[in-house]
Amino acid sequence: MRAVRHLLALGALALAATTASAQFVKGNEAVKVMPDGTKKVETPPLPTASLGAPCPAAKSGCAGGGWKMLESQSGLVECTEVFARPGTCRESTYGTEKRSRVWIVKVKGEWTQCERPDISGKCISLKGFPISAVQ
């Protein structure tokens, strides 16, 4: 019985470590920690073409193509678009709710979307077709 409890405790620790590590994407060049310890975060630039009105994150059905997971000054957020315009992002539900998600990161100076919070996995340029997975 004691061995079972020990195994369950180890499993819970492993799960907690996995969830915690997914709250950021290692190697994301959009996030820089400055020498004084503060964090500087970039978001993809707005396109030169005019965009329509943003679909608010609080509105149901606005993330029809899946949530775009981005780093912000306050941490991980899920957005209805990659540009993170005001009102289009909300606090992340990653690890507590399963949703279709794509991770927006900057790698080698280029904005990409990754299927998982890992740049070594399936990532494509933001100029390409969107990919997402329920997570």
Question: Can you give a write-up of this model?
Answer:
The structure is a single chain. This protein has 135 residues and is of the alpha+beta class. The protein is globular and about 40 Å long. The chain has one helix spanning 2-21, and strands spanning 31-33, 39-41, 67-72, 75-79, 89-91, 100-107, 110-114, 123-125, 133-134.
Main sheet specs: 7 strands, mixed
Tell me what portion of residues adopts beta-strand conformation.
25-35%
Radius of gyration: 17 Å
**Class computed from helices, strands and strand pairing:** alpha+beta
Q: What is the share of helical residues?
A: 10-25%
- Which residues sit in consecutive blocks of at least 5 with pLDDT less than 50? 3-22
What is the N-to-C order of secondary-structure elements (H for helix, E for strand)? HEEEEEEEEE
Principal-axes geometry comes out as: globular
